Structure formats: C-alpha cells, structure tokens
Amino acid sequence: MCKLDIQPQHLEIVKQILRTYLPDYEVRAFGSRVKQTATTFSDLDLAVMSEKALSLRQLCEVEQAFSDSDLPWKVDVVDWATTTPAFQAIIMQKSIVIQQKPA
User: Fold this and answer.
1) What string of DSSP letters covers the chain?
2) Is 24 a catalytic residue?
3) Is 5 a catalytic residue?
C-alpha cells in the first residue's frame, strides 16, 4: 500500500478544503509525495477524477483555498477530464485516493 508523504495535520487541511470545494469528486494524490521522493517543499499533486471538465470557477476557488491555507507547500490541482490519456496513465500508475466520491 502506498503512503502519502505529508504530516497528518496537513492532510486534514487538504481534506477539509476538498470537502468544502469539491465534495462530489474522488480525488487522488500522485507524484513525489506518493512516490516517497518529495523534498521538504515539494508540491502536492492532486487529480480530481471528473468525468467532464470542472468549471473555471471550481478550479479557481479550490486553488485559491489551497493558496490561502496554512500548508507549507503548493498544491497542484489537475482536472482528470482535461488531461491526456498518457498523463492519466502516469497518475494511475501510483496514486492514493484521499477523498472518495460520495455514493
């Protein structure tokens, strides 16, 4: 099982923002914080597993919330529906679900 390389209190901030701004989506973490290759200030890469493109407003609001938060690093939000199949394959190779899609 993969482990996410962030402190529990930071994960809770991330989850709170996701519940507030993207409550209807599964969200996966990927990249260096999943691969255990992150440095202290490496960003956190998140993929919103959307079937159709998120609105510009949704993306702006969640990105602003992460920017305004007390997280010590940047959060990169990727919209699954707008990524290429090649990038989707990279995400799926090694990712961790940090928010389930509601039933």
Assistant:
1) -----S-HHHHHHHHHHHHHH-TTS-EEEESHHHHT---TT--EEEEE--SSPPPHHHHHHHHHHHHHSS-SS-EEEEEGGGS-HHHHHHHHHSEEEEEPPP-
2) no
3) no
